Structure formats: structure tokens, C-alpha cells
Amino acid sequence: MMTLLRESYLCHLWLLLCDVYERSMLCRVIRGIYAWCGRQLDGSRVMAVLCREGEVARSWPESRLCRLLTGLINLPGGLLHRLYMAWQRTFEDSVFARLAFAMGDETAIAQSWLIMLLWVIPFSHWNNAYTLIGFAALVVLFYAGSMHRKQFRLDLANIGFYPLVLFGSMFLAVAFSYAPSLSLRFLFYHISAALCVLVTVSAVRNAGDLKRLCAGGAVCVLVSGLYGVYQRIQGVEVNEAYVDLKVNAGMPGRVESFFDNPNTFAEVLILLLPLVVALILCSKRNFSKLVACGVFVVGVAALAMTYSRASWVGFACAMAVFVFLWKPRLIPTFILLCCVAVPFLPETIWNRILTIANPADTSTASRIPLYEAALRVIKVSPISGGGLGTAATQAFIKDLNLYHGEAPFVHAHNFYLQVWIEAGLLGACGFVASMLWNIKRTARMARHSVDSTARTIACAAASAMCGAMVCGLADYLWNYPRVMCIFWFVFAMALAGTKVCFAEKDLDFAE
Question: How many domains would you assign to the chain?
């Protein structure tokens, strides 16, 4: 197939047009604009702020606390390694021991298969215990690899100080919760997410591991996207709980794939689609690029069919940030393509976009009482919040009569407010600091390193986080624990990508 394409008339015509373009004045002008944009960005205050490393982040890897915590979590691995050294010949003669060691060495591959399996389970058959069991098993598998490899250790240094503060605040949120019994269940969801970050950052050793994990996420996009397209072909009944029919007249039903909610499905896509873009750019074989392009097209089509306005804006932001981090000189082209694409948008999508700031839309108007209730919680209990999890905050708001809207209070429909009312001031500060630190760390790496697979994937993951943060202005992405795990997986992919770049180039980012 690829040979036929290369020998076709269209291919020869394309190559001829490319050759004419390369020799044209237009090409030289555009390259000049690209170079000018690159120089302006390199010397801009925006890049200076993004690439400046704070004192806390710089001192964390060598701090006593980091060394202490790293020693504690690697204690089982250290003990197992001592046992292996004492009985080395016995273990090496055992087929089962060698198999366990080999599997432990490839924990990243096991994780890629795990996320393929976990993230395509339909909502009707989903149990949140799957995530906790799966990532706990990966930690055990990692310890098996560390048994015969002394350097195979869990990595807290590259996870950073701020994420640890955030995860630590979750335990405090349970202890000081308005309803501790309701909060305890949600703590296990956050433990699952913490294990996901720990395993991902520790198990990834090279660009190949990063690509495998991206492929695992791409399988989720493909399967869920195809099912979403199938739903559209079959026809989706319009749900009045999701759509204001007066303002959105003529809009079809919103697809949700197997995630129970169209907004949830859209959030999964904005988190994983940038990783699919990275696969397209990093694939060396034309067939792999073609497959990745197909996955991306299916994912974008499914995202459009969700009619999730916040996710559309978040995805556009994610793509803009990706271009900015990956190759800033392409920003004019990206803006031009966006402007050219606007007239080709379907009428239903364009009309849906126009309702974003329309106060007559019940979906938009209903958020105001939710925000007010969240702000009342912060006013009543600014330090500790209402307690970890939506159940505890719902009980807190109901008992203190802080919500006065018509629809039931589920969550604040704002990422930042919901984290604050659940985890308190420490959790909110830790959350914002973690996101900013990770994005800044990736930007610093992207600025000082040459183009590579690890750099591209790290930029894609960081851009996905930016898109999620923008989407979070109008929604709460952790309402579904499975989406929470996907969120932290993408967060960890940015950390792992920068870690691989540091290891490959041994970069010194001192300003």
C-alpha cells in the first residue's frame, strides 16, 4: 500500500509542489517570520518566567526529606536485594525467579498493557478498586525488578515536592473532614493516583517506554472514540439534563461512549489526544504514523460529538501550548490554520460555541449557585474545607444550608474551587503549585534540549495538563475516579519525559 502511494501521480505532484514551494519567495518570507518569532519568544519575559526554577524545586532532590522518604519507600526493594545477594545462585537457577526479574525490569510495558485494559472497561462494569489493585500490583512488580538490580529504585526526586504536599493534604483532609467516614473512600482513589505517578515516573527509563505508554493511551482513545462515533451513527437521544433545548435548538444528542457522561468522555479525550499527536510526530515508520493519524482523527471527531464546550476550549488551549513548547516558530501557522478552520465548522458546533457566554443557557446559569455555594464553604472553613470527596462536601453544604440552587449540588463545577473545599487551603495551594511546577519544568527542558522523542512526549503531556486546567474553570475533572487516574498518568508522563531528557543530555538548567 505504501509503495503504491509513493509511486502514484498524486505523490509525484505533491513532491513537485513542495519543491516549487522550497524555491519560492513565499517560503523565504515565512521562514523569516518563523525565525523572528523564535527570537522574540526566546528573549521574552514569558519564557524567562516559564524557565525560571524556584528555590524549593531546585533544592528538593538533595534535601534530607527527599532522601528520607526515598529511603523509606525503597526499603522493601533494598531488603529484597540483600536477600538476592545472599542467595544469588539459588535465585539465578530458578526459572520462576528469572521470570519475575524479567517482568519487573519491564514494569513500563506491563503498565502500558494495564492502562489498555483498564480504560476501555464500560462504565456499567467498572469498579474503582480495579485501579488500586492494578497499580499496587505494578509496585510489587517493580520491587521484583529491584530485587536483582540495585539501581532499580522508586524515584521521588523527579516527582517533586509540590505533588507530595498535595497528596499529603489528602490525608489531612480526611482527618479534619466534616464526615470522615464519607471521606475515607475517596482517599483510596487518591492513593491509586499517587501509585500511578510513582510507578510511571520510576519505571520509565527511555524514550521507548514513553512511546509504549502513549500507545496504551492511544488504544483508549481509539476504542472509546470508535464507540462514540458508533453511538452517533445509531443515534443518540437528546438528554435535557445535558442540553438547554431552547438555546441549543437542533443540536443532536451528545455521545458519551462508555464513560456515562459526555463531559467525562470529553475530558478523557483532551487528556490523551495530545499524547496521540506526540505518537504521530515520534513514529519512525510511515505505517505507524498513518495509524496514529487515524486514531487522532477518530478522537477529534468523538470530541466534537460530545458537544462539551469547556473541553473544546481546553483542547484548543492544549494544542496551542503544545505548539508553543514544541516549536514556537510554528505559532503563526497554527493561528492561520485555526482561522481557516472556523468557516468549515458544522453549524451545530458553531452554535454550541456561541452559547458559552450566554446567560440564557441553563447549563451556564446553573453554575452560578454552585460557585456561590463553594465560596460560602471557603468562607466558613477556609483552612480545612468540608472534607475529602464530593460526598463529604455535599453533606457539609446541605447541613449548613449553603446551596440555594434548583438542581442538586454534585460538585462545584470548577476544578480549583472543588479542590479547595475538599482538601482545604493546603490542598488548593499544593494543587496549583504542582501544575505550575510541572509545566514550568517541561518548558525549561523544552527550551534547553534538542528535539527528541522524550522532549516531544513531555511537551504533549504538559500541554494536555494546560488544557485540563482551562477546562477545569467550568468543570471538575476528578468527579470520576477513573478520569482522576488518567489525569495523574498524563501528569506523570510530563515528569517522566523531562526525566529522560535530563538523563540523555545531562542538562544543566541553572540560570
Answer: 1
